[in-house]
Amino acid sequence: MRNLRVLCATLLLAIGVSTANAKTLAIGYTNESYQEAAAMIFKIVFERSGYNVAEKIGTTSTMLHAVADGEVDVFISAWLPNRDAEDYESLKDKLVLMTPIYDDARSGFAVPKYIPKSIVENIEDLTKPEVLERINKTITQDTREKELNEQTKNAGKTYSLADQGFATEALDSDSWFATVEKRLESKEWFVIPITKPHIFNLTKNFRFLKDPKGGFHKKDTAWLVANKKTEKEVAEHIYNILLKMEMSTEWVAELQQMIKEKDYPPYVAARIWMAAHPYTVEYWISGE
User: Fold this and answer.
1) Would you say residue 231 has pLDDT above 80?
2) Strand, coil or helix: 232
3) Which of 45-54, 112-121, 231-240 has the highest mean pLDDT?
């Protein structure tokens, strides 16, 4: 029976469902790669349940307002209780936190693991004389990661990094990856801002620096956010599926890795990932 249910879960992904006359649901997400990757999982679940899906992309603030106003049914995702607290608090009477998609969401500065931890353990250590003599002071940012880049700016001010000669540069995603990989290959000392989830969390090439002054927000949970009408807008069994759709930062990073390294479109990567995790999909869609 269990193998039969796993087969059914896989077939749910493989067999298309006609959505010609179906109800349309709107999902919102930001342009960050990890948000889009997770959003495609939810899109597939909706589509395989017979819904048309409209995608809305914007900043976290814009998307939370859109959910509160009923223009978007679900948003993937708000990081709480820290990063997105200001926007959420102003709208929380109109919002519902449905599902903790993944825990341990965070942003911060990271350095390659070949830099001794005894020398560089926290962000303050970047300004040690012996580190300043050796480290590349250009902090390269991925232009796509807007939420992260805002926090990077704040962290730079918190630790007065500009006063020590550090400066930021913004590159498109492909150029950013190429630059980082080149620096790794040459064993260069450098620091980058990254999130968790991120592809580099899988490669284990980097470690996060401690942040004693709180330049970046503390660890969060990434929540699936809905408005208070969402439960009435979707079928009960679909709503119950959404309540169970928890993932992990590692799983989201796996999706990012397929998109980046195998050049899969995000939607295709999500389908492949779900087919490779039939027991998870089974749990999501089962009535148990």
Assistant:
1) no
2) helix
3) 112-121
Q: Buried (b) or exposed (e) across 24-60, using 16+ Cβ within 10 A?
A: ebbbbbbebbbbbbbbbbbbbbbbbbebebeebebeb
Distance CA 140, CA 69 (A): 37
Give yes or no for a contact between 270 and 41, defined as CB atoms under 8 angstroms apart.
yes
User: Which pTM value belongs to this model?
Assistant: 0.87
Sign of CA dihedral 275, 236, 5, 243: positive
Q: Which residues, in sequence order, are bridge partners of residue 25?
A: 53
Q: Residue 122 gets which letter from DSSP?
A: B
The alpha carbon dihedral of 87, 92, 93, 94 has a sign of positive
Hey, CA dihedral for 271, 256, 196, 90, is it positive or negative? negative
Phi, psi (5° rounding) for residue 160? 50, 45
pLDDT in tens, 146-161: 889 999 999 999 999 9
If you count them, how many residues does the chain have? 288
- What does the angle CA 247 – CA 219 – CA 262 come to, to the nearest 5 degrees? 45
